[in-house]
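Worked example 2:
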Amino acid sequence: MVSLKYILTKDDYIKFYTHVFWEEGKKKRMVNFLKQGGFLITFLIVLYFAGGLGSFNNFSIAIYSLIFLSTLLPIISGRSSIIRSAEKIADNPDNDSLFTEYNLTAIDSELLIKTEFTETKYYWKSIIKKTETDTHYFLFENSLQAIIIPKSACKSEEEKLALNKVLSRNLSLDAEFNQIQN
């Protein structure tokens, strides 16, 4: 049995949100990047064969630059946009109940989480994926919802080892290695 007491912070939530929508979505982002790049290359080939690339003046350079930047900008600013979205959610007063004290108890039959507002019991089979970062454990119930456990909640190395042992003993192999499709 492992018992942890922690307060989920806005920074914890922002890291979770960024992980779900940025880190987990790498494959989807790559496909979108290839689509945008393919569109840009197709556009330039059509312009070349139509004779539009033969004469460069200030106006055409400005148009080509605008098209190129409009293709590149979403790729460059994607992560910061996701972080801003997470900050908006975290700063919304309707979501204050997320940032309260959590009492987590992990035993071989279940995971029990109590807060000032709720008491939730999770059976281990309900966890479809476990992701571990440098600072957190994310135990996913589905592709968007997860139990967020900051590693800082473990006050000692023994507590961290005990938590890892309970998780590895009770989570299915699918949960340990599952790659959720976003």
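The radius of gyration is 23 Å. The helical segments are 10-23, 26-49, 58-91, 157-170, 173-177.
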